[in-house]
Design goal:
The chain is an alpha/beta fold. The chain contains 10 helices and 12 strands. Bound molecules: 3'-deoxy-guanosine-5'-triphosphate and magnesium ion (3 copies). One magnesium ion binds at residues 188, 230-231. GO terms for molecular function: diguanylate cyclase activity.
Amino acid sequence: METENKKIILAVDDSLLICKQIRAALADMPVFLCEAHSGREALELAEQYQPDLILLDVVLPDTDGYQLFRRLKEADKNNASIIFLTSKDKDEDVIRGFSMGACDYIKKPFAKGELQSRAQAHLQMKEQRDELDRQNRELRSNMEKLNYLAFRDGLTGLYNRRYVVGDLMDDIGRSNLEETENVLILADIDDFKNINDTYGHEAGDLALVCIANIMEANCRKHKVIRWGGEEFLIALFNVTREEAFGISERIRREVEEFKVFSGEQEFSCTITMGLHVYGNHEGIEESVDKADKALYYGKRHGKNQSVW
Ligand code: GH3
Ligand code: MG
Ligand code: MG
Ligand code: MG
């Protein structure tokens, strides 16, 4: 391509003589220079080349430079710097130019060397600005990734316990409709120590991932959190008690029926679920404690069941 990674300058001036002077002034610079002689042409070339720097005349045949300035800015995706290059030399003209957002103002007639050094300086500043923008975007994207990872469990990809402190409380606060409840379920894998002892820790990890997937698949509108080692907290929003119990039992049955294949081995797990209706004035810890009591009851009374 003709621009070949060069900085691009768009000169807008209806005078062919001025265009020639600009060309001469910038001749030594490694830039790609394009010229427009009217407002319409300027907009077309700006769209086509996305210049880094625009030298803008004020008096033009089809528009005035101030109006054109606004339209160039609106269409600009490259954050171009714009310098007014004009014979309008009153103080108020200069002030108007800067107040519109021009980065510089050069009066005609101009000295070649001055135009060149100002153009150079503004291209350099633009490069630094672009680099800062790039670093900023990278930083923001890294922050987003970190923020995501901070609230995720590394093994299962579920939310981790840190999520509960902030966002889950917000979710619970938002979702309280009349006639439905928010229900917390604390789920714990039965005899998981035996699973690890019998099939190995890796097989245990695989079982955790499979169970997490089953829970997620049944809780699209809700939240599943890896609460601890082999414990999960499920927050169901805006459900009736019947619906909550139904979801709990469906998960429990699907887990029971699911076969985990690890190497040559094949096994299945069961889980016990403790359910508790989240009380509006309860703290999360208090509420989880109550779900834990129901879970404990289930563990004492045969496991592999859902208990209020
Ligand atoms: P119960 O039915 O009463 O819940 O018995 P349990 O054996 O499941 O409970 P216990 O608390 O005695 O043991 C939990 C086991 O879970 C022990 C621990 O090694 C295992 N565990 C916890 N986190 C992980 C993990 O990330 N991966 C694997 N493979 N095992 C884990
Ligand atoms: Mg003119
Ligand atoms: Mg446990
Ligand atoms: Mg257990």
